[in-house]
Design brief:
Elements lengths: L5 H5 L3 H6 L4 H11 L4 H8 L18 H12 L6 E2 L12 H8 L2 H4 L11 H18 L3 E2 L6 H15 L7 E5 L4 H14 L2 E5 L11 E6 L10 H9 L3 E6 L10 H4 L3 E5 L15 E5 L11 E6 L5 E6 L5 H4 L12 H39 L3 E2 L7 E5 L3 H10 L2 E2 L1 E2 L5 E4 L6 H12 L7 H9 L28 H12 L22 H4 L5 H4 L11 H18 L3 E3 L5 H18 L7 E5 L5 H8 L3 E5 L9 H10 L4 E7 L11 H10 L3 E5 L12 H4 L3 E3 L20 E3 L36 H35 L17 E4 L1 H7 L3 H10 L6 E2 L6 E4 L7 H22 L17 H5 L10 H5 L3 H5 L11 H6 L8 H4 L1
Helix pairs in contact: 3-27, 4-27, 5-21, 5-27, 6-14, 6-18, 8-14, 8-18, 9-10, 14-16, 14-17, 15-16, 21-27, 22-23, 24-25, 27-30
């Protein structure tokens, strides 16, 4: 009989052992290898004692999966999911189950990384290319980016792009029509203030009265009206203004495209293409522009190139535009986007095809026609004379109508001027229309949906003006007409998934990106309707579950970070940087020190840092690093003193981007504070802090937290992300607010940085579950295991590759950088060769050439087992031995497994392979582990230069895929 106690048998810490890769026995073997007695001993050797927390966190005990699931089930049940007719950019949608199960809930899709290694990402690249094709077809413009964050931030990006490309160089006014969604105006005004733009809001037809660099219009507008702006756009074009349009993606299926009216930039949310409302997100925005402006577009663009065999292959095009390369000169600071959601929207379009989409859009419009005809027959006045899916009603007893609506568990849009708005969507039925008649008119109205439908068929209404009906074809590429059966759709999704390497294949050891386990139990609540189907602008008393979840998660994050408050709104890490810098900016302004606009940034910083500083209207001054990769404190001190009168802040990453705990971090904070600045501590490397130290304890004032890194939200092939900011109490009044949802905080009056008040709220349960299940002990042990795994890999590789930077006691933090530059000198083998050769071994490359060119930055995370770490180390050592054969002349520099990697099935089937100086087995089965479980890249190395010189960003002929 067992001698364990009942508490031990209940296994409250079982999740911790599931999350952490190495077993207890393996942990001890690894500790012995690196020369530490225990995790605590390793921590003491690695982390400076001066920044160690004096006490443990107070998150609570670990709990089991069943217990945690039951608890969050109780939270979800507090949300009241009413039928939403609020609209304003968020609509009910039916997620096809084949997409829900095979994409949204499939780790093959949600655990993949941004496709920087395109040879092992051809599946999601094709899905994103489809998304671009949908965007271009519907908007009538030439070039689409892969995805942005949401409609409002896309509007802000469109404004910034308009200023960049407008030929009205002296103009500083951006016009916004007064019928755009208020949350969009909110975000645009926040961004415009940073850039020093003047925003004029007025009736759309007054736009041509001003000297503008750009203008923004909503199509259809917030009241539901469909306006033909062709003449207005022509007038604005004559004045050299850039015309930007926020468009509804579903309405574009039936409506004339904005591009054909003369729009230069068109954007909007793809949410209603099969992505749940989720209390605000995550949702992908689409963004499309004229070809002439392609090099000024924000976001990622997927393009068609060719591989070394001349076959079509996809890649991220024009990467030289991106923030990690251009830094403060970047077009935007976009890093994490919303690729998983863009893929869902693209598959939605593929599954329904043009015919299916037209049927859905026509049904929505027909039900709106029926509602409009019935209400008008009963004397209800409509504000709008045309419509696609939205009616605005005037002259009603608003309080009575709203009371009846709430009793019927439906939410209408109630405007401050007494207008009642109703937006229909894909989920609306004829029974819903009958219920709306009851709510608006009261009982015994005598209206019949079928009779009204017959009247409309007889010509009773023309809701879409004849000149605005779309006549051109959409989605004519065969991809959008080939997969309408679920069998074919399932196989298409699987075929694309098979081309991609994700965490369900092998470890992805990307330094600075923390690709850890996204446990299934953490993911489950995201699909629950109580979290998925809530409108972000519903009454707060219907969202008590979300409020509890957000408050509890905020309390956890406050405890973990050592800050006083958390703002949840930023919906990516880069957005968190921007939001944190805005808080600093407003704080200085509140003290009559608005002239403080200098942001100090070390040479080693993430590329988003200088891009975000520029976005916030700050001037970047770079500080030096010493030979060991640490911030040069004396250079920092000198520049802080020199710029003291205008010093706003420093942006610094901890542990450093070089993968070490810098001993001088507290001193750096003190120097900046001494000269009147604030400390922004980049939270990208928080996975090496949790439970051991914290930004607040170190002395920082604000940090963003990558919930999609440290706190287990998956990367989704390039997004979703969440970047809430932790702040000290003196900055709390200055964080983002929201024009629509105001819970009563001091910061409510501030401008927004995202469309929804709580950003991508529907993925917050993932991080809540992660922290709840691990508890105080688990989150700390996860950090310590990240240190152990990194130091184990570092020491294993150090005899074969130079390790570029180490900290105290020759330890690294959670990641290490190996230097490949000496190998290039002796063999000609580049970091790119090694990255691609790792594909043959079944691994995604570590982060390449960041933060130092010619290096690989390796971050194994706590979730990888010793077996997987050893497999990776074995591959890296084997590759080093292959390099030695090139160094010795056994293999030519231009014809060896590294230079030719990755290898495909086409390679080994090619008779010409016999002329190579290495065997087929050496090419594709270089180790026993690979023989046992081979991942096949589907294309050979891709020609980046060809892709940029021959830019093609739309679907290629289907035969090229075959």
């Amino acid at each position: 009989m067992t001698k364990q106690t009942l508490t031990q048998l209940e296994q409250h810490e079982l999740f911790l052992s599931r999350h952490i890769g190495p077993s207890q026995t393996q942990q001890q073997e690894m500790l012995n290898f690196v020369g530490a007695e225990s995790l605590e001993d390793l921590t003491a050797q690695t982390v400076p004692g001066s920044i160690r927390l004096p006490q443990e966190l107070t998150i609570g005990d670990s709990c089991g999966e069943a217990e945690g699931t039951a608890y969050i089930r109780g939270i979800a049940d507090k949300n009241k999911v009413f039928k939403s007719y609020i609209g304003m950019g968020y609509y009910g949608t039916e997620v096809p189950n084949v997409i829900l199960r095979n994409v949204f809930e499939n780790p093959g899709w949600y655990t993949a990384y941004t496709p920087y290694q395109p040879e092992i990402a051809q599946g999601r690249l094709e899905a994103i290319l489809n998304f671009q094709q949908v965007s271009m077809d519907l908007t009538g413009l030439d070039l689409a980016s892969a995805s942005l964050l949401d409609e409002a931030t896309a509007a802000a990006e469109a404004m910034a792009m308009a200023k960049r490309v407008s030929k009205a160089k002296k103009a500083n006014i951006f016009f916004v029509a007064d019928d755009v969604f208020p949350q969009t105006l909110d975000v645009v005004q926040t961004r415009a203030e940073c850039f020093g733009f003047e925003v004029i809001v007025g009736p759309a037809n007054e736009a041509a009265n001003y000297e503008l660099f750009g203008a923004l219009f909503q199509y259809t507008n917030r009241f539901g009206e469909i306006n033909d702006n062709t003449e207005l756009f022509a007038k604005l074009a004559q004045k050299k203004a850039i015309i930007t349009v926020a468009a509804d993606i579903m309405s574009l299926v039936l409506l004339k495209s904005p591009g054909s009216m003369g729009a230069d930039i068109v954007f909007g949310s793809a949410q209603r293409f099969g992505v749940p409302m989720g209390y605000g997100g995550p949702h992908a925005a689409f963004f499309v522009a004229r070809d002439a402006h392609k090099r000024s577009m924000p976001g990622r663009i997927i393009g068609v190139s060719k591989d070394t065999r001349g076959n079509k292959a996809l890649r991220m095009a024009m990467q030289t535009r991106e923030q990690h390369i251009r830094r403060e000169k970047a077009n935007s600071n976009i890093c994490t986007a919303q690729i998983l959601l863009a893929n869902m929207a693209s598959f939605y379009a593929v599954f329904h095809g043009a015919v299916g989409l037209k049927n859905i859009a026509s049904r929505i419009n027909r039900l709106t026609d029926i509602l409009a005809v019935g209400l008008k027959a009963k004397g209800v006045a409509l504000v709008n004379n045309t419509w696609f899916d939205t009616l605005s009603l005037s002259g009603l007893d608003v309080d009575a109508v709203n009371a009846r609506a709430l009793t019927a568990e439906m939410n209408l849009r109630i405007d401050s001027d007494g207008i009642v708005g109703i937006s229909l969507d894909e989920t609306t039925t004829r029974d819903d229309i009958a219920q709306l008649f009851d709510v608006i008119l009261g009982a015994d109205h005598g209206l019949d949906v079928a009779i009204l439908d017959a009247e409309i068929l007889a010509g009773a209404v023309q809701s879409i003006p004849a000149e605005l009906i779309r006549h051109d074809k959409i989605l004519s590429h065969p991809t959008f007409s080939s997969y309408q059966s679920e069998t074919e759709m399932m196989r298409y999704i699987k075929r694309l998934e098979n081309k991609d390497l994700a965490l369900n294949h092998s470890m992805i050891s990307l330094g600075s990106c923390t690709m850890k386990l996204n446990a299934a139990v953490e993911m489950l609540p995201v699909s629950w309707p109580e979290f998925a189907n809530m409108h972000p602008f519903c009454p707060l008393n219907q969202a008590e579950g979300y409020t509890q979840l957000i408050n509890e998660l905020s309390d956890y994050l406050v405890n973990i970070t050592g800050y006083d408050n958390v703002c949840i709104q930023p919906n990516s890490g880069a957005q968190g940087e921007y939001a944190g810098l805005l808080a600093i900016k407003k704080y200085h302004e509140s003290r009559s020190e608005g002239h403080r606009d200098i942001c100090l940034i070390p040479q080693s910083a993430h590329g988003t840092n200088p891009a975000s500083a520029q976005l916030a209207g700050m001037k970047v001054v770079v500080t030096a690093c010493d030979k060991d990769g640490n911030v040069d404190v004396e250079d920092l001190r000198a520049k802080a003193a020199e710029l003291a009168d205008n010093l706003s802040c420093i942006m610094i990453t901890y542990p450093s981007t070089h993968g070490v705990y810098e001993e001088s971090i507290s001193e750096i904070c003190e120097i900046v504070h001494q000269y009147g600045g604030q400390v922004y501590l980049d939270g990208a490397n928080m996975n090496a802090q949790v439970g051991l130290t914290s930004p607040g304890f170190i002395g920082a004032d604000v940090s963003h937290l990558n919930l999609h890194k440290t706190f287990s939200i998956p990367h989704g092939g390039g997004g979703p992300g969440m970047g809430p900011i932790g702040i000290k109490k003196h900055l709390a009044p200055f964080v983002a607010g929201h024009q629509i949802v105001k819970p009563g905080r001091e910061s409510d009056h501030n401008g927004a940085v995202s469309a929804a008040p709580y950003g991508s709220a529907s993925i917050l349960p993932i991080s809540w579950m992660y922290i709840k299940l691990l508890g105080t002990k688990g989150v700390k042990q996860s950090t310590q295991m990240a240190l152990l795994n990194a130091n184990y890999v570092m020491k294993k590789l150090s005899g074969h590759y130079p390790v570029l930077f180490t900290g105290r006691n020759e330890r690294v933090a959670h990641e290490c950088i190996i230097d490949l530059r000496p190998l290039k000198e002796t063999s000609g083998v580049t970091e790119m060769d090694i990255a691609k050769r790792l594909n043959d071994y079944g691994f995604h490359s570590p982060t390449m050439s960041f933060p130092v060119a010619g290096t690989l930055m390796i971050e194994p995370t706590e979730s990888e087992s010793k077996v997987e770490l050893d497999r990776f180390v074995e591959a890296m050592i084997a590759i080093r031995n292959e390099v030695a054969k090139v160094e010795s002349g056994q293999w030519p520099q231009d014809n060896n497994p590294l230079h030719n990697a990755p290898h495909t099935m086409a390679d080994i089937m090619d008779p010409a392979f016999d002329s190579r100086p290495y065997s087929r087995e050496e090419a594709v089965f270089p180790s026993a582990a690979v023989k046992a479980n081979k991942f096949w890249p589907t294309v050979n190395r891709i020609d980046d230069v060809y892709g940029d010189r021959n830019l093609m960003c739309s679907c290629v002929p289907i035969g090229d895929y075959e």
